[in-house]
Amino acid sequence: MEEHAPSQHAIIPVEGPSVDPDLPRLHLKIMAEAAERLLAADDSARMVDELFALIRSELRLDVFFNYRLEQDRLVLEAHAGLTEEQAAAGAELALGQAVCGCAARERRRYHVTGVQASDDPLVAFVKQVGLDAYACTPLVYGGELIGTLGFGRRWADRFSDDEISLLHTLCHYVALAKHRLQLEQDLRAGIEQRERLLNELNHRVRNALQLAVSMVRLEAASEADRACAAALARVGDRIEVIAAAHRPIYAADDLRTVEVAELLRAVSTGLKTSTVRVIGAPRTTLPIEQGVAFALLIHTILTLGCPSGEPASIEIVGDASTATVDVIVKGLNMQADLLGGRFQRAFLRQLSASAASDAGAVTITLPVRSDER
């Protein structure tokens, strides 16, 4: 490009640091307020609108353009000071097209002066908008191009060095804020995708278990031998417990653990022989691979201890001195061997737990940490 006199048109790449330590005090105040707002922003386009409203009067600005990079094109995300026709005309830019496209392609800041005196096709759009001075900054974070942000004025043919420094610094803040918002959006999308997959998996597991329950029930109903039919019925009950235990497992926020109280509520809800209350429930978790064993252990104790549908209750008590949690099942008929069966012993081993019975209650001591001890 040819050299231009100061009063003539020039497209000036801006080099050097974006922050001038000698900025006027008012500019520093604007930077501080802008940084605070951008840190709290939750909408990418609206935050630039609010930034423009903050600095428009002080810098006597007329227009801003905020472009977002989409693949190899710039898409106008937010703007002010344009008519609908002008916004439509500048809705998309190729990299290298117009001032913003050049700033994006070259990742360089530009200060365009004396626009109305220029016939350079590169400034045709900002000239048509009526600007006479324009400053454009590529929005870059960690080497990644996010888009561009430019500000223009119609009443003077240039910005001062202090104004250029302030605008470029604010654009740097905007790039940081946009990067943060994109990370948050990606995180939310990942969480939503995980939840969709978990819901689908839970639905399929539940359907498969329910099919297994139905098949076992049919076999039990057609079995002439009463002892065999009773054994099949118990198998069906246990599969139903496994299905009930999967609900809190898949609903857990932490995929490594499941809450003990939620497991107990799931088991008691599906219990056919008794009404169970879960009381005194601090937030206590088990490793997720132990969840089904715990649910089956509680179901077995309740089935044997409340054969006629007597009401029972379960209390969860944390013990900070021993780093254990006691799950106390009360209201049981102690005539049955509630803890001596091979299933109960196997479940206790899997849980690394101990158990004791006394005065109509069974206490299971789990080596887990309660968050509320």
Automatic annotation (TrEMBL):
<dbReference type="InterPro" id="IPR011495">
    <property type="entry name" value="Sig_transdc_His_kin_sub2_dim/P"/>
</dbReference>
<feature type="coiled-coil region">
    <location>
        <begin position="180"/>
        <end position="211"/>
    </location>
</feature>
<dbReference type="InterPro" id="IPR029016">
    <property type="entry name" value="GAF-like_dom_sf"/>
</dbReference>
<dbReference type="Pfam" id="PF13185">
    <property type="entry name" value="GAF_2"/>
</dbReference>
<keyword id="KW-0808">Transferase</keyword>
<keyword id="KW-0175">Coiled coil</keyword>
<dbReference type="GO" id="GO:0004673">
    <property type="term" value="F:protein histidine kinase activity"/>
</dbReference>
<dbReference type="InterPro" id="IPR003018">
    <property type="entry name" value="GAF"/>
</dbReference>
<protein>
    <recommendedName>
        <fullName>histidine kinase</fullName>
        <ecNumber>2.7.13.3</ecNumber>
    </recommendedName>
</protein>
<keyword id="KW-0547">Nucleotide-binding</keyword>
<dbReference type="Pfam" id="PF07568">
    <property type="entry name" value="HisKA_2"/>
</dbReference>
<feature type="domain" description="GAF">
    <location>
        <begin position="43"/>
        <end position="188"/>
    </location>
</feature>
<keyword id="KW-0067">ATP-binding</keyword>
<keyword id="KW-0418">Kinase</keyword>
<dbReference type="GO" id="GO:0005524">
    <property type="term" value="F:ATP binding"/>
</dbReference>
<keyword id="KW-0597">Phosphoprotein</keyword>
